[in-house]
Write a structure and sequence with these properties.
The chain is mostly helical. Helices cover 58% and strands 0% of the residues. It is built from nine helices and no strands. The radius of gyration is 16 Å and the shape is globular.
Length: 171
């Protein structure tokens, strides 16, 4: 019975179980693994995604976020599904279907919030909408996040807050 519960927990978190392990993977570990997998398909955003997850949910350790580690919003999900306004996203949709067998257009906001892999893919697509390249420095990424990802409703989310949280976070 415990094995069944553990397997369901791992599946719900978007992870395949290892029958030799007694413990489940933490959401932090799952998120780091998902970022690595997503970066293999869509390279160049690994640091940006890790830092975004740190700022948005302490890499999944802030339990208030649930599995929505990247704090995706319904508006954001609508945007990553809107290939008419963002035609460059069609390549993301196609690769996601090929590599992960996920149909973005048929994925719901609830799917994006609760499935850690889909949550990571959603964040990557949010950055894929932006025509500017992701900066190479923490300072640059902080400004990039503030301008392109963070909600204008979040008055506490500034590039200074981003840098402070990223620099204070210990992996």
């Amino acid at each position: 019975m415990m094995k069944l519960v553990r397997d369901r927990m791992l599946k719900a978190r978007g992870s395949e179980g290892d029958n030799n392990k007694e413990e489940t993977k933490s959401l932090k570990d799952i998120t780091i693994s998902n970022i690595s997998e997503v970066d293999k398909v869509f390279p160049g955003a690994s640091d940006m995604l890790k830092e975004t997850a740190i700022v948005e949910s302490k890499l999944g350790m802030d339990t208030r976020a649930g599995n929505n580690v990247f704090q995706l919003t319904e508006t954001g999900i609508d945007a990553v599904k809107d290939i008419k306004s963002h035609p460059g996203l069609s390549k993301y949709h196609k690769k996601i279907k090929e590599k992960f067998d996920i149909d973005i257009m048929n994925s719901t906001y609830e799917d994006f919030k609760t499935n850690p892999l889909l949550n990571t893919l959603g964040a990557r697509m949010m950055y894929g909408i932006v025509p500017d390249a992701i900066p190479n420095t923490v300072e640059g990424r902080a400004s990039y996040w503030d301008a392109n990802y963070n909600s204008t409703a979040d008055t506490h989310g500034t590039s200074q807050t981003y840098m402070k949280q990223v620099k204070a976070f210990e992996y």
